[in-house]
Amino acid sequence: MEALNNLMYGFSIALEPINLFYVFAGVFAGTVIGMLPGLGPISALALMIPLTFGMEPSSGLILMAGVYYGAIFGGSTSSILLNAPGVAGTVATSFDGYPMAKQGMAGKALAIAAYASFIGGTVSIIFLMMVAPLLGRVAVSFGPAEYFSLMVLGLTAVVSLSDKSLVKGLIAAVVGVMISIMGIDLQTGTERFTFGTVHLLDGIEFLVVALGIFALAEVFYMLLKGGGGKEQPRNAIGSLKLSKSEVKDIAAPIGRSSILGFFTGVLPGAGATIGSFLGYSMEKRLAKDGDTFGKGNIKGVAAPESANNAACTGSFVPLLTLGVPGSGSTAVLLGALLVMGVSPGPAMLVDRPDVFWGVVASMYLGNIFLLVLNLPLIPLIAKILDMPRPLLLSLILIFCMIGVYGMSFSVFDLLLLLGFGLLGLGMRLFGFPAAPLILALILGAIMEESMRRALQISGGDWSIFIDKPISMWLLIIAALSLMLPLVKQAIKLAKARS
Amino acid sequence: MTAKQHLTRFSAIVLPLAAVVGMSSAAQADEWTPTRNIEFIAPANPGGGWDTLVRTTSRVIQEEGLAERSFGAINVPGGGGAVAWAQIARDSGNPHKLFATSPPLILVPLAGASRYDHTDFTPIARLITDYSIVLVRNDSPYEDLPSLIEAMEQNPQLSVGGGSAPGSMDHISMAGLAAAAGLNASDVNYIPFSGGGEAMTSLMGGHVEAVITGAGEASGQLGENSQIRALGVSSPERLGGALAEVPTYQEQDIDYTFDIWRGVMGTPDMPAEAVAYYEDLFSQMLETDGWQQARDQLGWIDAYQDSEEFGAFLDEQKEQFSTILGDLGLLGE
């Protein structure tokens, strides 16, 4: 009951006309920002800080939160249509979203993304509301040892993400780990794989790799295979409607991924990108038709999209209940709140309930706005695919380059983008899957840092990974998920023989 | 790269031109004034200490109508500042380019990770300072700093987390404290996290025994219902607000202070007239109500020094830091 009362109080704030306007403005700006590759939520949020000067803290946070989850919501569009992820959290969406678009089901993919995002967002707000104060404890229960084991579990997905050849998948994963550790090592200050240039001291930006390996490689591949302009435009938007059986198919994955995504988001440092990958690989393993993942399976769009939006909401838990930012975007939000004179933390729920409950209530509204805003736009946006091929390819190219240059203002990063495009093309031609590389790139650095931190705390004693119960269970699940396919196969073989 | 990977790297705001005429620094004919907008660089991603300083000062200068031209905040992240320094060092004599700075400008070059150090740039003014604070969990057995130090002596494995890499601010601050209390600087089992927030989360979860971080950053975490408490601050005198109850190191018979100062520097060989203009601008800014309000909200403490004092202070800091880094074996070539 108390939560309900609080929520009512929250709505009384969120429904004030000015705040209603901020919710709308925030999610609208967020969607647009999310759709453009490169311009991610963090730079958008930093840009908005001066706008919030002098605002009521609750209004300021309502606006900025709207931009943040709006960007994750909108980020799927370019992933699906162009294979060019708009934000890091939507990379996994392109695995099945882009094949769907190529098969003339762009409308359906976008609609599923919108529904899944909406449900993921809404489910996670309910969680945020009901259990946020308790979840503060969950967030801090993850120390270095637990993070390491979680990353190990995440990496076992390499097996399911390597479609044909496991060896090639593992090779791709190793390259991903190598890229992830480039730059200054946090533990010792040693430079690794920097080739003596300052541009690599901070490693390589994730989106440079993702845009190169997915979008640019796709452009190169089409140029190589297609011969520009000969193919007729595919008039390929297709219907937005989902059949009953399709709704039934994606309901469970959306539910599971929303919950998984939320808890991933709650952990500081994990966030939407890892959440979406975990959701995707979980559904791929659970699905009976798991082998069609990566070829345009609707569940492969639904799972990561619900997970990344849920994770985005989840990341507000450590911010609002502990005052600790769990991601780059929430770090900027924290800064903005401090400037507005609110210190998020355990005391905030008591001192400034208007900020906490106002924002929670505004998120319900924001997600409804996003759905209403996005669905009618789908046919318009998807028209981009009707463009003649040469134009479309040039457009993708320009998008990628603007996106990368806009992140760092660095010509060096443009060259890197080109390099990764060529790497992606080579991988495609020789049958190396790209997803394991991206997954390892996301998980590798955190995994290594956590492992070394844990060992430094334990004085080099490896038993820390088993002594901690959460860590032990994560490792056991990881081991099981690797063994299960083998056991299944063994049983099948045994049956076939007898 | 962790969460930083997902950070997009660029953002810039150009605050609209302050249309206020008749400022207190009513320019005389021979005085230098900026002829175009000023680039104010934060050598890091949005959200951190440098970035907050740049955005807050730009905003106050604009709102109070102190400058004829506007200040545009620009983020140039990379290499803990080294990328931005390398860029700025190439822009010798440019009077329209400033950057925010703090101890890493001395520490990073000493560790051998930047070709440029403070002597390559023109000091403008030191503005504020923050202090280090030592935190433990609420249920920790350590009641004061000496008891923590004693425990560290008996158990060299005792883990002390911090928000930055080895050899950077938090580590130096802790190592200096340990050395002043009679331990070896290198006996601290320092666990680096990628930010003070992450270090404090680890402390709350019981993954490390103690944490050292910035007092401003920690103040929001302390108080009633908090899971953590503070053992000491590195300031010469007690701080105000939420930290008024926290004793200094010196009160606990450890003769050591540590400043996390922040200031503004300009391009190499910036003309003296321009330096004088900015010195004056920032000292005026510190007097405004807008600044004092923002400063208190952010938990900063004014610590103004003009160009000359700041330069001398930086030289002193370099000497002090090289000693500690040498003891830690982290001095670069």
TrEMBL record, chain A:
Transmembrane regions: 20-49, 61-88, 109-132, 138-159, 166-184, 204-224, 259-280, 324-343, 355-379, 391-417, 429-447, 470-487
Residue ranges occupied by any DUF112 domain in the UniProt entry: 20-439
Pfam families in the record: TctA
Keywords carried by this UniProt record: Membrane, Transmembrane, Transmembrane helix
Domain of life: Bacteria
Protein name, per record: Tripartite tricarboxylate transporter permease
Organism per entry: Billgrantia ethanolica
Taxonomic classification: Bacteria, Pseudomonadati, Pseudomonadota, Gammaproteobacteria, Oceanospirillales
Automatic annotation (TrEMBL), chain B:
Signal sequence residues: 1-29
Pfam families reported in the protein's UniProt record: TctC
SUPFAM superfamilies in the cross-refs: Periplasmic binding protein-like II
Keyword Signal found: yes
Keyword match Protein biosynthesis: no
Keyword entries, A-Z: Signal
Top-rank lineage group of the source organism: Bacteria
Family under the similarity heading: Belongs to the UPF0065 (bug) family.
Protein known as: Tripartite tricarboxylate transporter substrate binding protein
